[in-house]
């Protein structure tokens, strides 16, 4: 979030990029706690043209597969 409470795309990209380094795969998890943070995730998806996969917190197996 920048000073205007908008999604900070460059910072997001930098932090996500740090999850997979030196040719290794990485995993980034976005925690969404309400309407505003969900809107930011949607802004990020639109900006980068990439779908961010929603994982159900009720399904541990789904999360394990994503991390796997």
Q: Give the ordered list of helices and strands.
A: HHH
Instruction: Please state the CA-atom Rg, rounded to the nearest Å.
Output: 13 Å
Strand content: under 5%
Summed over residues and divided by their number, the pLDDT gives a mean of 84
Determine the N-to-C terminus distance.
Answer: 29 Å
Number of strands: 0
Query: What characteristic shape results from the CA principal axes?
Result: globular
Separate helix tally = 3
Structural class: mainly alpha
Helicity level, as a percent range?
40-55%
Uncertain spans, ≥5 residues at pLDDT below 50? none
Please give the oligomerization state of what you see.
single chain
Sheet with most strands: none
Question: What's the structural blueprint in terms of helices and strands?
Answer:
Elements: H1 9-17, H2 35-48, H3 60-67
Structure description:
This protein has helices spanning 9-17, 35-48, 60-67. With 68 residues, the protein is mostly helical. The chain is globular, with a radius of gyration of 13 Å. The mean pLDDT is 84.
What structural keywords apply?
mainly alpha, single chain, 46% helix, 68 residues
Short description:
This protein is mainly alpha-helical.
